[in-house]
Amino acid sequence: MKVKSLIGGILLLAVAGGWSTVATSCCERQMCQNLRAIKPLIADRYAGCCHLPAESRTACLQTINTDIGDAFNLILAAKIACDEGNNDLMREHLRRLRDILLPKIVSGANGQIYNTMVAMGRNDWITLDTTLTLAPQDPCKNVTMTIVPQGIVNAEAAGKAVEDQGGETGVTVVVPAASTQAFTTCTYNVPSGTTFDMRFGEEFRGVMLGGSFDLARTNTPIPENGLVVAAIPTDLQFTASKYGHKLRLSLDKTNPYNALRLDAQGKGVLGVALTLESDSSALVGLVYVGSTIYFEFPVEVNASWTSVRLMVPRTRPGNDFTPVNDLALIAADGPRTSPPPIANDPCSDLDGNGIRDGADERIYALMYSLECDSH
């Protein structure tokens, strides 16, 4: 299907629904954010189909086109539910949208962990500098952990760790909390009154942050050069709030990529898969709410492990903290104003942007019909 006919079909759906495409309201901004989030997933699905043998490729591409049509309808339905103030229905539409396009957290060939759905982009940022300290009473306790071929993970993550190895279990050892070799996890609290600034599409100043996280040290020797997994996050519960709206972030304990990596100076990166939840009307219309997103925060741990400093500088782009690959950012941010050059073969890449022409065509059609500018 060429872009003109696809656009025409989508526009007919929009007109039939009696919907205006002038993106100015809060609900329309959320709709365009949701479109931006899923564009890389469309590109990723096309790339997957185009790697298949010819006899399987056609059916795969047909399935994608059906899913894209369903995704468009769900984005539009969520916007209409937002206009009507029906948060429960809006949540359901966005849950179904995630089920269709399946955003994931994956490990690349170079070992880098990244999201297949774009969250923060190049123009977004966070400014945060706060030091969490051990909870004042009984901060530490034993915890059950699992040793898998990749290393130490939360007990809940053992299954996904095996999947990550292609289903080959290797040697897996459960270390119960009641055993003499048990790992110890300790709670670190966010100081009262902590605030941060951020840009996520628009700027927010003085966002309140509260909560805590738990770390279980691996007791791995730290070399003079390079980073090692020095601890595993076993829990995290943060709340960010502004103007009465609250966003809850909680650790996905089933994710095998949760890890604190440090160098010999105690500096490194806290990598955590966080599930975002909110009941606030200003947030529930975003596809990110209900999703699990992988974050990486720069940290510094003191020698006695009594404090952990989170230091996120304004100078680094937001996509550094919610990692994605370069092609995902290209898909999320374009095309902007004109149709990309398209070959007859949907698996070609005529403009050389790394995105398959079929994906470029569908992405542009959605942007055109919804009149959504790049985020």
Explain the overall architecture:
The chain is built from 7 helices and 16 strands. With 375 residues, it is of the alpha+beta class. It has 2 domains: 3-104 and 325-370, no CATH class; 119-320, no CATH class. The strands form 3 sheets. Strands 3, 4, 8, 9, 10, 11, 12, 13, 14, 15 and 16 form an 11-stranded antiparallel β-sheet that branches. The chain has a 3-stranded antiparallel β-sheet with strand order 6-5-7, covered by helices on one side. It has a two-stranded antiparallel sheet with strand order 1-2. It is globular.
- Round the Cα radius of gyration to an integer and report it: 22 Å
**How much helix is in the residues?**
25-40%
Give the domain tally. 2
Supply the helix-strand structural class. alpha+beta
The major sheet is characterized as: 11 strands, antiparallel
Oligomer: single chain
The succession of helices and strands, N to C, reads: HHHHEEEEEEHEEEEEEEEEEHH
Q: What average pLDDT do the residues reach?
A: 88
Instruction: Please report the total strand number as a whole number.
Output: 16
The share of residues in extended strands comes to 25-35%
Give the termini distance in whole angstroms.
Answer: 27 Å
Assign an overall shape: globular
Query: How many H/I helical runs?
Result: 7
Q: Which blocks of ≥5 consecutive residues have pLDDT under 50?
A: 1-23
